[in-house]
Specification:
With 167 residues, the chain is mainly beta. It has a single domain, classed as Galactose-binding domain-like (Jelly Rolls). Helices cover 4% and strands 43% of the residues. The protein has 1 helix and 11 strands, in the order βββββββββββα. Strands 1, 3, 4, 6, 9 and 11 form a 6-stranded antiparallel sheet that branches. Strands 2-5-10-7-8 form a 5-stranded antiparallel sheet, with no helix packed on it.
């Protein structure tokens, strides 16, 4: 007799040694998970140049304006645009200390400008504040989530999965 499979099985050979990466574009806007929430006056969205992600970006030069990104994962990397007239962003995770990120430089888009340390798997909030000494341009963020846990059946169950001969 053959019994149909009733649930998915996870491969049991090897181990996952990688995380899952989620690109969050700067124009994915809202207050939910994996959405940028722009607070304060002056935020503008538009087409990008110089290789920006999805050919767009978001910018502001109003001191005190900020953007947040709620995500679930173990690490986040913020991408922006460098330019000689850009300024400084103050970046933090979960309300912790701010790191000042200088966005001045040769004009380049889709540049990794800041990366978080490894975080405990779970919900976190990235905050990017405009210091006010020039434009802060957000291009995207990549979120790394932990690999799935391996679910391995007990040894006795694994041996019972061997095909049996039907007579």
């Amino acid at each position: 007799m053959v019994t149909a499979a009733t649930r998915e099985r996870v491969p049991t050979s090897g181990e996952y040694a990688f995380g899952f990466v989620n690109d969050v574009n700067d124009t994915i806007v809202g207050s939910g998970r994996d959405q940028f929430n722009y607070v304060g006056a002056g935020w503008q969205h538009g087409p990008g140049d110089g290789g920006t992600f999805s050919a767009d970006n978001t910018w502001n030069n109003t001191a005190g304006a900020y953007a947040t990104l709620d995500f679930t994962g173990t690490r986040v990397v913020l991408y922006g645009v460098r330019d000689p007239v850009h300024g400084t962003a103050a970046v933090s995770i979960d309300g912790g200390p701010e790191a000042l990120v200088d966005l001045r430089g040769l004009r380049r888009g889709n540049v990794a400008v800041w990366g978080s340390p490894v975080l405990a798997q779970g919900p976190h909030t990235l905050r990017v504040r405009v210091v006010g000494d020039g434009y802060v341009v957000i291009d995207r963020a990549t979120v790394v989530a932990a690999a799935p846990a391996m679910i391995v059946p007990p040894r006795s169950a694994a041996t019972s999965l061997r095909p049996t001969r039907v007579r």
